[in-house]
Amino acid sequence: MFVRGKSYELDATISTVDSDMESNNCGIDLTTKKNQRRQSPPVSSIVFKGFVGTYQDYCQHTSIHGVQYLGERDRPIKERLFWLTVFVVSIYSCTKLIYSAYTKWDATPVIVSFAEKSTPVWNIPFPAITICSETKRVLNKASGNNSYANLYNQFTADMRATRIFKPQNITAGELEEFRTLLHVCNSHIIEQDMPLIPGEEIDYFNVLERMLPPFERYFFYCRWLSHFDECDKYFSKTLTEEGICYTFNGLRPTEIYREDTYQYHHSIAMGNFTESSWSLEDGYDAASDVETYPARVLSAGSRSGIFMTLQSFKQEVDYACRGPVQGFKVLLHAPDDVPQVSKQFVRIPMGREVLIAVKPNMITTSEGIAEYHPQRRQCFLSHERLLRFFKVYSESNCQLECLANFTLSKCGCVKFSMPRSLDMPVCGEEKIYCYDRAERELLIREFQRVRSLNVAGEAPKGAETACNCMPACTSLIYNAEISQANFDLDEMLAAEGDTEFMREYPGSQMSRLSIYFKQSQFITSKRSELYGVTDFLANCGGIFGLFMGFSILSLVEVMYHFTLRFAVNLNTYFKVDL
User: Fold this and answer.
1) Rounded distance, CA 255 to CA 212, Å?
2) Which residues lie closer than 8 Å to 404 by C-beta, 6 or more apart?
3) Which DSSP letter does residue 194 get?
4) I want to staple 524 with a disulfide (CB 3.0 to 4.6 A). Which of 210, 330, 362, 417 is the partner?
């Protein structure tokens, strides 16, 4: 009874409400009103709303300093402007400092500094020594009017008169010797319009070898590592711009020159087949013994060096060829360098004892700089700059090759001592003036090219010259400290009562030469990264952290909020509003 009465009252109430709603909806279309309430806002407003919400959420949770003040709704506008100004100034400061760091990293990525440890002298070869006598041909008084001086005077007279040099009473061999001496005796005095000299092409090396003074007379004796021996055991002939010289401890031409060069084939004909166990970048083989090639020493001092006595003879000196300064020229160079005696040498006058204390200067390379472009690090690795005539790259070898190429293009030939292929023509006497001036013209051309690029602002990292002969990244040079004293041979022989020596060697003039390392250890230099990629990133991170508190995670926060979080917010807003 009770339950049924309650149900009746509920039904009556629902019926009453329905009747009221029907009476209140008089004349109104309920379907139209429901559609109007469901109309969605524009998509752009929803996207903007989602962006604003994401931005405020980011400002509230970001780790970057000062940004949270920009997104607070209740923050006064003046304070927001203040923090916006501070934020912009911080970004500008960061950009300025990072650009400065990048410029330094890009312009000078490599620094040359001292190595952490000293290097013993046995890790490097003893310097190669090239010795050239100023006596190019023994002066023979029996030749009479056919000496170099007389022939050159006649040559000069014919140059002004007939323009054709036709000496009388001269053999073909003497004419070949005179033509060869024009190339090695004061060639800078040769004028441009020189007279024609009749004759066939000659092999200048063979003629120079024929004129060469006897080796055993001019190199009297040698001592290497406290062992006295004949000098010809240690020295080999080398063709240079000064003629034929003698080199100690240099690599054989077969290891320096390529197979298609004249120098390589000439060395094969002479039978030089010794293989070296050393390279500039890798050093000696781990299995190399004390006695190796090229030779090395174990300590400093004169007893661990080379000592020799050089000799010339007053009656054999031809002052007309090389001028008043006689004696010997000595050049110290790396074993894999081709000697260029006329560029830098030590003069060994007669009647003097000369001591040369050697201080090596070696630059090595760290592995990290191989990733940089050669123009950025300003040096070449061995495999980066391949030369046409040489197997081994060095700055001096590259410059010599460039000079040979320039001389060939200018004169149509190369000097007899220059590297050349088998089919390249050798300059005759009429081209002496041309190839002698070619070297200076090449230097002027290189200077003008670099200067024009620097003036135009096109070479901020150092202009690349036409020769493109930057230093090798690993290099070895030998600096010398020189001391001299008088060496009075006559007084010594008189004090000893020796009269036989001067009868056997009349007119003898002697000099003594000693070459050795000054110290047993030396400090090498090392090319390494001034700024690596890691250093640059650490520098940038420090600047960002100092000014803004920015880190890699801060970048992740930005990416997270405006990609993933933004997409989630948009999805939520679209569900609510649609």
Assistant:
1) 26
2) 389, 414, 415, 418, 419, 420
3) P
4) 362
What is the residue whose two structure tokens read 């962006």?
A: 51
In the beta sheet, which residues pair with residue 478? 360
520, with CB counted inside 10 A (0-12, 13-18, 19+), is middle
| DSSP secondary structure string for all residues of 112-176 | EEEEEEEEEGGGSPPPEEEEEES-SS---GGGGGGSHHHHHHHHHHHHHTTSB---SS--HHHHH
Which residues lie closer than 8 Å to 50 by C-beta, 6 or more apart? 566, 569, 570, 573
Q: How far apart are CA 386 and CA 381, in angstroms?
A: 10
Pairing of strands 128-133, 328-333: antiparallel
Q: Are 65 and 564 in contact (CB under 8 A)?
A: no
**What is the DSSP code string of 512-535?**
EEEEEES-SEEEEEEEEESS-HHH
**Rounded CA separation 382/473 (Å):** 8
Please list the pLDDT of the chain residue by residue as tens digits (578 residues): 333 443 434 344 444 434 444 444 444 454 444 444 556 667 778 787 778 888 888 888 787 888 878 877 788 888 888 988 988 998 899 999 988 888 887 777 888 888 888 999 999 999 999 999 999 888 776 555 577 878 877 777 766 666 677 777 788 888 888 889 989 987 666 766 666 677 788 899 999 999 998 899 999 989 998 888 888 888 999 999 999 999 999 999 999 999 999 999 988 877 656 778 898 888 898 888 888 999 999 999 988 999 999 999 988 888 888 888 889 999 999 999 999 998 889 999 999 999 999 999 999 988 888 888 888 888 999 889 999 999 989 999 999 999 999 999 999 999 999 999 999 999 988 888 889 889 889 989 888 887 887 776 555 454 456 788 999 999 999 999 999 999 988 888 888 888 888 888 888 999 999 999 999 999 999 998 887 778 788 888 888 888 888 888 888 888 888 888 888 877 887 777 66
Q: Which two tokens stand for residue 271?
A: 């039978």
Distance CA 140, CA 108 (A): 60
Closest CA to 62 of 570, 553, 569, 567: 553
3-state secondary structure at position 239: strand
Measure Cα distances from 285 to 40, 277, 282 in Å.
Answer: 83, 6, 8
